Amino acid sequence: MGGHTGRTGDDAIEVKITAWGWVAMDPFSQLILTISVTSFLTFQWLFHKVSPWMSTRISPGFLGLSDKQKVEWNSRTVSTFHALLVGIFCLHILWFDDAVNEDPVWGDPTLVKTNVAITTGYLISDLLLIFYYWKAIGDKFFVVHHLAALYAYYYVLGHGMLPYFANFRLLAEFSTPCVNQRWFFEVLGYPKSSRPNMANGVAMAVVFFMVRIAVMPVYYSRMYAVYGTEAFYLVPWGGRVAWICSSICLDIMNVMWMHKIARGCYRVLRSARKSKASTPQENGKTD
Questions:
Q1: How far apart are CA 106 and CA 83, in angstroms?
Q2: Predicted confidence (pLDDT) at residue 20 exceeds the cutoff of 50
Q3: Band (224; pLDDT cuts 50, 70, 90)
Q4: Residue 228 region by backbone torsions, left for phi larger than 0, else alpha for psi between -120 and 50, else beta
Q5: Where is the TLC domain (predicted)?
Q6: Taking 80 as the threshold, does the pLDDT of residue 144 lie above it?
Q7: What is the rounded average pLDDT of the residues 6-14?
Q8: Could you tell me if 161 and 235 are in contact, meaning their C-beta atoms sit under 8 angstroms apart?
């Protein structure tokens, strides 16, 4: 693991006070802020304009949905796009960003900050939509989740710390498209035993396990490797809480969700097998 670069949270963002008392950010911090704002505006545009236009052409059933269902449909469409975008970016960083992989606490966070800035813009956009359309998509759990994530991302964007762990957590986004697709099938009236629904259910269980459960040993082994080192003690207490406590709480929920998903997938597959076995053949017998 690479050594500490000597940069602490206090000088991670270079600022200067002008003669008029204004605080001027360094060019890269301005770029990150611009990316976050652009991300926010882009996801608002996708929700209000792109998703309704695209959905009416891809799925005729969209027009028959209620207003509340259309709001959630557009929200989930945007969620799927965000998940694929940051998930692919996350894999690129894990595979090719040597600085972050060698020093997971204080490695060069340039690419991670860019990815987190995109997610920050999305989370703020989604929070705004949740509050505005509370009757349709309001959910206290998602509000808490988004605020907790933004708190953790503050330390990444504001102090440049823990880039490896922040990026690793974004791997979980790969399970989002399948979860959203299950809702799309349900609202369009697809039976749970239909082949598209069953295929998506199996894919959801497999992907959820891979990106949220199977990766736990890798994540916590890296955490254990840096615990107690000089780089670790340079992380302020707030950053450690946002890192360690949130990780443990999130993974407890992931295990619970994985249990529910696995049971649901098993029940659907078992039901489909029984249904197929009881279907009469041409000779009047069952399989």
A1: 25
A2: no
A3: very high
A4: left
A5: 68-270
A6: yes
A7: 46
A8: yes
Helix axes of 110-132 and 140-159: crossing angle, nearest 10 degrees: 150
* Rounded CA separation 55/131 (Å): 23
Q: What is the DSSP letter of 23?
A: E
3-state helix, strand, coil in the chain (%, to 5): 75, 5, 20
User: How buried is residue 133: exposed, middle or buried, by Cβ count under 10 Å (0-12/13-18/19+)?
Assistant: middle
Q: How far is CA 250 from CA 50, 105, 181, 240, 245, in A?
A: 32, 20, 23, 15, 8
DSSP 3: P
**What is the pLDDT, as a whole number, of residue 27?**
82
DSSP codes, 48-85 = IIIHHHHHHHH-GGGGGS-HHHHHHHHHHHHHHHHHHH
Burial grade of 204 (CB within 10 A; 0-12, 13-18, 19 or more): buried
Calculate mean pLDDT across residues 150-165. 93
Tokens of 253: 């929920």
Report the C-alpha gap between 112 and 28 in whole angstroms: 13
Sign of CA dihedral 89, 155, 176, 44: negative
Detail the DSSP E strand segments found in 56-166. none
